[in-house]
Amino acid sequence: MIGKHVQALLTETEDTFLIPAANVATLLYNHPLEHAMLILTNVGYSKIPVLDSEDHLVGLISLADIMQEISGLTGFDMQRLEVLTVADVMEVKVPKMTEKDDLETLLRRLVNEPFLPYVDQNNVFLGIFTRKAILKSVNHMVHEIESRYWLVEKEEERKAQ
Amino acid sequence: MIGKHVQALLTETEDTFLIPAANVATLLYNHPLEHAMLILTNVGYSKIPVLDSEDHLVGLISLADIMQEISGLTGFDMQRLEVLTVADVMEVKVPKMTEKDDLETLLRRLVNEPFLPYVDQNNVFLGIFTRKAILKSVNHMVHEIESRYWLVEKEEERKAQ
């Protein structure tokens, strides 16, 4: 469990770590791969969320996913970019966060995922939680905690009583 | 400054956060781009270090760097992969860590970089520090700190004296 003082310090600089959907580059599942390739080449993120036309989260896609799909024995077959869509290569097993998940869960899952999509109860995409945002708050917390609090060992205190 | 108790908890589960060079996928600066493309498609990391033949760190390269280089008005020109080398597209401004840098510096720099290469005084590549490794230790720290210590507000203590 994360203690209340630590939790307070972690959430002090921003109460939510969410980057809202409006600020996140996404792709539609039925976009042609050629378009996906252009977006991923220029967006500055290696992997982005894939939505359907009603903003439901349906997958994640990266440049590597696309290149793997079109790579063959004799190199990369760029012709296939015109006939395939995002849905053909996206990863569909997407780890995600909902409003039921707490800060503890978020911190644990971000060990294995560079970012986590956040969805409502109908799986509508609301934004992402990133390692970057969390690390900003971690920096704040580790700098502040010992300047604000004395850390008194619980063992020693018990001994002293 | 990071306090001594926090620092001790952060470094308790592993004294170094380094992933040694032997376990990191790298490319040589004179590799053809076609080879770089294959490695980056299959390695599972979106960006990897570039070395010279004596293991000096000379750059970083990602799939997006390559695709940007070969993209033109009429799509991607795969022919260019055969004539270009890694050195032609790699990023040469590489944020990195040396033995002079402490944990505080590492934590701060990882806010903006997914990983940081670590080099010796001759710029020989020794490994990388990742957000993943740091977040593992952060999880340990935030769980342990309030079960091991009472956090006593310094203000209140001063008032009580």
TrEMBL record, chains A, B:
SUPFAM superfamilies: CBS-domain pair. Keywords: CBS domain. Residues 18-78 form the CBS domain. InterPro entries: CBS_CbpB, CBS_dom, CBS_dom_sf, Diverse_CBS-Domain. Signal peptide: none annotated. It comes from the Bacteria. This is CBS domain-containing protein. It comes from Enterococcus columbae DSM 7374 = ATCC 51263.
